[in-house]
Amino acid sequence: MKLYNSLGPNPRMVRMFLLEKGLDIAAEEVDLMGGENRRPPYTDKNPGGQLPALELDDGTVIAETTAICEYLDATQAGPSLMCANEVERAQTRMWTRRVDLGIAEPMSNGFRFSEGLAIFQDRMRCIPEAADGLKACAKDKLVWLDGLLAGRDYIAGDRFSMTDIFLYSMLDFFAAAGQPIDPELSNLTAWFARVGARPSAESSLHPAAGATGMRG
Ligand SMILES: N[C@@H](CCC(=O)N[C@@H](CS)C(=O)NCC(=O)O)C(=O)O
Fold this sequence. Notes:
By secondary structure, the protein is α+β, with helices and mostly antiparallel strands. It has helices spanning 9-21, 42-45, 65-75, 86-112, 117-120, 131-148, 162-175, 186-196, 199-203, 209-212; strands at 2-5, 26-29, 53-55, 61-63. The protein has a 4-stranded mixed β-sheet, with helices on one face. The longest helix is centred in the middle third of the chain and has 27 residues, at 86-112. Glutathione binds at residues 8-11, 32, 37-38, 50-51, 64-65, 108, 123. Glutathione is lined by residues 8-11, 32, 37-38, 50-51, 64-65, 108, 123.
């Protein structure tokens, strides 16, 4: 099994997930800034052209961060970050999807269409005039989540899960890239500090994070 790895919030989520499970797997660096992920041979393996991707020993490639984490959770040792039962698994998926569609995607595209425009304009359709609106949509969902986190330690219930790792990786990266967490969102801020205090949070940063100032 091999992880195609780079700087960035999505690969960082998988690295944090692996650390939480106590797993160490081989990794191959792909030059994201140089666009290596957008051309063959990488796109022969992952036509989505993004990172991370997981290649199994039989050559099967799994992409999409949450699909990779779910696969690792189901097949590898270590504490489950999905569930203790089918209800919890469904709740983790439900919350992860809400975070993905409502927060991660608009935040990411908000970044790609503004601060990240120089990198992304030749890689995908960019809509600079949509950037502010997308960032505002993500903020609306963070306000909503802040209310729901009152009296709650974690997003998908009373247990730390894949959803927490996912949102933490996103918020940490984008806070350092033009989308800081509003300090008035006190429940979200406390949750962010709680997850950030886990040893896996700092240890999952890419070696290039320090030099670039990026939190990915
Ligand atoms: N939906 C994808 C998003 C992956 C993604 O956006 N990856 C970023 C790194 S954090 C990337 O590959 N960016 C470079 C590019 O899109 O060319 C997932 O869940 O894995």
